[in-house]
AttH domain-containing protein
Amino acid sequence: MRIVNMGEWPLGQEDEQRHEPGGEPLWNESWYFDFVSEDGRTGGYVRLGLYPGWNRAWYWACLVTADGHRAAVLDHEAALPGQDLAVAGPGYTAGHSTIDPFGRARIHLSSPELSLDLEFRSAAGVYGYAITPRYEIPCEVTGTIDGAPFHGHGERDHSWGVRDWWSISWLWSSARLEDGTYLHGMRANLGMELPWPAFLAAKGDLAHAEGFWAATVFDGDRPVESVLHFPGCATTVRPIAFAPVTLTSPEGAVAEFPRALCAYETEDGRTGHGWTEWHQPPGWREHAWEPGV
């Protein structure tokens, strides 16, 4: 499995497991699993976030369709799991496991609202961030949703460290195009330029995309369209269906997380589907986003 690691720390198979927590209250460790059907009409995501400083875990599972169906299990008061990363709450049980480090992972959810049994098989290598301990893995996704067979594509990621949901806005996007190219880009509104995490993976050859930036049009607070600027691959992103989450800090600060299943179209006419998030902490409109963010 090819690893493209932009950071100063080596990524090893042990990084697929849990890490020793830092002492900061906002230290967290999270696992994301995003998926979209072949036709782009159904998509979902699962996030497990551990917050040892708060003695709790966050669990999110959302499913949306192009015709307006939405199902969600959102729990911000789950007990911290053991090494098996199994969590449970009112009306649901969920599991997360790595079958083959950097190769295959599996998620399971049982609830009245939504049932998932999905395997994520790595499709194009592993991409490690430069600015924080985190990696992304483009995947083929198979299994069942509410008992029905599912086949599609997506991305899973794993990160650990301090994450302040209530002070920094960002854009994150991941998709697969019809020709098999995976793309990923992220940038935060920090008021400075950094080597933003971005890659293109064509025919399984994953490579860092230097100089990534993005621009978004909003209708009020709702994102209408973003243009992701990859070298030679400017891509327009339009939401199909939103699966948002509201995040409240222990002090009562509220952030909005408008995440959406999206349609993608490159400047040369290729199309695809994936997920994009436009994180909105308190006062995000009061601080002008940097050009391109």
Remarks:
- Residues 3-279 form a domain with the AttH-like fold fold (CATH 2.40.370.10).
- DSSP finds no helices and 23 strands in the chain.
